[in-house]
Design a protein that fits this description.
By secondary structure, the protein is of the alpha/beta class. Helix content is about 40%, strand content about 15%. The chain contains 9 helices and 12 strands. It has helices spanning about 20, 45-55, 75-90, 115-135, 155-165, 175-185, 190-195, 225-240, 255-280; strands at about 10, 30-35, 60, 95, 100, 105-110, 140, 170-175, 200-205, 210, 215-220, 245-250. The strands form 3 sheets. It has an 8-stranded parallel beta barrel with strand order 1-2-3-4-7-8-9-12. Strands 5-6 form a two-stranded antiparallel ribbon. A two-stranded antiparallel ribbon has the order 10-11. The two termini are about 20 Å apart.
């Protein structure tokens, strides 16, 4: 296992879990993920805690606030800080949401981008600039949303394909987001996933969600992964191979043992595809 290069199954690196991880990192965890906004520039105890793990395990940077599709200026200072932070810790993969989350200030939500040709050009130009600053291609995550922006000229899948092609970037596939959107907007999740540029997949998220009394699904990352989402993950591996996959759990966080049980499911689903790759 090479620090900085993710493989296998991973887990979000959260302060609530550090005490348990200090007792020993379970074998099922191959890498960790963090949001650079929550760790970059910190000193003292937090910096020392993180360094202990980045020296021993690969880490993925998953951004929260770059607002790649937003109307305000691209935050180049944030990108420079992320570049420095990643270099300090030997991290080699950065992903962000294909969404927007700021205007005059941060909106604290990930909002959908209108699926128009103009938005393709605008977003792709910002992604190219971000890649130039970071010195690497980045992965874009398909986002969950609850209101479809008006004026669509492209399908959501068509929009994602167009942005990724024009920006020459990578796909960060979130199978739970696909499932949530498919239930909320009434489309076939598997058909949608197969319409994405899966050959560019660099990273995968899997997570749980919450179902409102009226049936609306909310992408909370606060519950166990359900069987239809696991099935989408297996279908994704069938198309793009055993891409590194992280379990997201941001709320109602159980103990480490319970999380590891789900990380082990990722491993079990990946296993035959790893064997196929080795045989090939």
């Amino acid at each position: 296992m090479i620090p900085g290069f993710p493989l296998g199954a991973g887990l979000g690196f959260r302060r609530e879990l550090i005490s348990a991880l200090d007792e020993g990192v379970p074998d099922a965890i191959d890498f960790f993920e963090l949001a650079p906004e929550n760790w970059a520039g910190l000193g003292g105890r937090s910096a020392k805690q993180l360094r202990r793990y980045t020296e021993r395990y690969p880490f993925v940077c998953h951004g929260l606030s770059l607002s790649l599709g937003g109307p305000s200026s691209l935050d180049e200072n944030l990108l420079q800080n992320i570049k420095t932070f990643m270099a300090e810790h030997g991290m080699t993969l950065y992903t962000e949401h294909l969404s927007w989350c700021s205007d005059d200030g941060h909106l604290y939500d990930l909002l959908p981008i209108p699926c128009t040709e103009e938005a393709v050009r605008w977003t792709a130009e910002r992604i190219r600039r971000a890649q130039d600053i970071l010195g690497m291609r980045i992965g874009l995550e398909n986002a969950s949303y609850y209101v479809a922006p008006p004026g669509a000229e492209l399908s959501e899948a068509g929009f994602i394909n167009a942005v990724i092609a024009e920006a020459d970037c990578l796909l960060h596939l979130d199978v739970n987001n696909i499932y949530v959107n498919s239930r909320n907007f009434g489309f076939d999740a598997l058909e949608f996933m197969h319409a994405l540029p899966l050959e560019r997949t660099c990273y995968i998220h899997v997570a749980g969600h919450y179902t409102e009394p009226d049936g609306l699904l909310i992408d909370t990352h606060g519950a166990e992964v359900i069987d239809p989402v696991w099935a989408l993950l297996e279908a994704a591996y069938d198309r793009c191979g055993p891409v590194p996959t992280c379990l997201e759990r941001d709320f109602n966080i159980p103990d480490l043992a319970a999380l590891v049980t789900e990380v082990e499911v990722i491993e079990r689903i990946q296993s035959p595809f790893r064997k196929q790759r080795r045989a090939a």
